[in-house]
Amino acid sequence: MDRLDTWTIFVAVAERCSFADAARHLGRSPAAVTRAVAALEHHLSTRLLNRTTRSVALTDAGARYLDGCRRLLSEFEELEAEATERRRPRGLLNVTAPVMFGRLHVLPIVRDFLAQYPEVDVRLLLLDRVVSLIDEGLDVGVRLGHLPDSSLRAIRVGHIRRAVYASPGYLARQGTPQTPQDLGNHECIACSAVTVIPDRWTFEHAQRSFAVAVRPRLIVNTTDAAIDAAVAGQGLTCVLSYQAEDHVAAGRLQRVLIAYEPPSIPIHVLHPAGRYLSPKVRLFVDDATMAIRQKFGAA
């Protein structure tokens, strides 16, 4: 009989104050249970239980050992459950990401994860505001931008840029700006979700950041609307690179003023820090890290 089994028998007897009841609970003979406890007491050179013909009670030493033993058995059960879950992850996984980035790049990861692990369900919360993973009961977050100091574990998985785009048709008619100052002579589409001050766009050159006044003929509050207007030839717009990449690949938009773009914006995968991470969270973090790094490159 191994030591862990012996401790399990001791806990069963102590909690039921009866060798016979513990034997029935464990499916053992009363004699086997009695021998196991006696062997444990001999090994420890300590009496754990006081026995009479009518009752069983813990000694002071037995009470101390019982508390530690319960913790030990609980941790062992957690390890066993983790091993089982690693083979077959299960349960609800809570993930958050920005709305558009989540729809384009996190949702495909979630769909693959669901297909791979049929006993896992996912709640995907897409928000363009920062939420507390701890307060909202979230397991994993994908964040764009520099992070404040926190107790979260952050894995940097890539970067994006804020850039200026226009349709080839617009550039053919109005010319391609060569410096940010040229934007004053162009029609612009401002998106308040990206450029908070619609008529001031920021750039960087030679490690110097500066703002340029622009003339927004159209101001919108979503990047989808800004990009649609730019594709239609309405003017130049400033959005994040991942938001326009499909249109650039299809030839509907062209990136300009590349030499004047601000520093890159990091992408992080986050999860609460802690000694133990459930297998489903660890597996999803690994999948998300690999998939986003393949597309956006570690920065």
UniProtKB/TrEMBL annotation:
Q: Which domain of life is it from?
A: Bacteria
Question: Is Cell membrane among this UniProt entry's keywords?
Answer: no
Q: Which GO terms describe its molecular function?
A: DNA-binding transcription factor activity; sequence-specific DNA binding
Q: Which Pfam families match?
A: HTH_1, LysR_substrate
Q: Which SUPFAM superfamilies does this one have?
A: Periplasmic binding protein-like II, Winged helix' DNA-binding domain
Task: Give the signal peptide as a residue range, or say none if absent.
Answer: none
Task: Tell me the ranges covered by the HTH lysR-type domain, including all copies.
Answer: 1-59
Single biological process term from Gene Ontology: DNA-templated transcription
Keywords carried by this UniProt record = DNA-binding, Transcription, Transcription regulation
Q: Which family does it belong to?
A: Belongs to the LysR transcriptional regulatory family.
For this entry, the protein name equals HTH-type transcriptional regulator
- What does the organism's lineage look like at the top? Bacteria, Pseudomonadati, Pseudomonadota, Alphaproteobacteria, Rhodospirillales
